[in-house]
UniProtKB/TrEMBL annotation:
Residues annotated to bind 2-oxoglutarate: 145-147, 230-236
Cofactor(s) needed: Fe(2+)
Sites where the protein binds Fe cation: 156, 158, 212
Full protein name: Fe2OG dioxygenase domain-containing protein
This protein's UniProt keywords: Dioxygenase, Iron, Metal-binding, Oxidoreductase
Cofactor note: Binds 1 Fe(2+) ion per subunit.
Any one annotated GO CC term: cytoplasm
Length: 239
């Protein structure tokens, strides 16, 4: 299993998101094989397409290395809701736009809170979008959320974008996260599944505006990052 291979590759805990963490040398993956048989088939849940274990160990390691470069240029920051409540995740972005939240509201911005433009989206991440999104448009934002122990994300819709016909692609790295899928309006019955390191999810079509969130993470379930935690990447077309 991917989890067991990760433990053998990272048995000494070489990989960490933090700058300066000791790491193994690795070749960055810039292309995803086009052969569909080399990748798991999607499992549908309420219209969301879940690709379990889409990324293998080497690809997860390479993706994490790319993310370190992004975070070095656009550091993680702690957002707050428009009501002044701190969010439990830390975040940053890559691409033309980044998603931010503060007392001025939820929105996309062309600059990091420190005033600098966002870094480009790494080609390794764009390759995943190209393989699963089913659209010819390129993503304009890669939102990077880091979940430490105790972090969660309440039920919400992704509706700050201009074109809801464009999907949102989610990539999971690190510890398991309990993902909940709801309905087009708040309330009603929901379904949940554990998203694991290397999983990819496509939210599009009629499911594009379903409420969804992360109830909790399960610490210690993946050795990808020595200090633990979960990273979620969401790729979006903004304009």
């Amino acid at each position: 299993m991917v989890r067991d291979r990760l433990r053998s590759v990272y048995k000494e805990g070489q990989i960490g998101l933090q700058e300066g963490s000791p790491e193994e040398d690795c070749e960055k993956m810039t292309e995803i094989p086009e052969d569909a048989t080399a990748r798991p088939a999607p499992q549908e849940i309420r219209g969301f397409l879940h690709y379990p274990g889409w990324l293998d160990v080497a690809e997860q390691q390479a993706l994490l290395a790319d993310l370190r470069e992004v975070v070095a240029r656009a550091p993680l920051f702690s957002p707050m809701t428009p009501y002044g409540k701190p969010m439990s995740v830390r975040m940053t972005s890559a691409g033309r736009f980044g998603w931010v939240s503060d007392r001025r509201g939820y929105r996309y911005s062309e600059t990091h809170p420190d005033g600098c433009p966002w870094p480009e989206i790494p080609s390794s991440i764009l390759a995943i979008w190209n393989a699963v999104s089913g659209t010819t448009r390129a993503p304009e934002c890669c939102l990077i959320n880091f979940y430490g122990e105790g972090a969660k994300m309440g039920m919400h819709q992704d509706r700050d974008e201009d074109d809801f016909d464009q999907p949102v692609v989610s990539i999971s790295l690190g510890d398991d996260g309990l993902f909940r899928i709801g309905n087009a309006t708040r309330g009603g019955k929901t379904e949940s599944l554990w998203l694991r390191s290397g999983d990819v999810m496509v939210m599009g079509g009629a499911a594009r505006l379903l409420y969804h969130g992360i109830d909790r993470i399960k610490p210690g379930t993946c050795p990808l990052m020595p200090k633990g935690g979960r990273i979620n990447l969401t790729l979006r077309v903004v304009t």
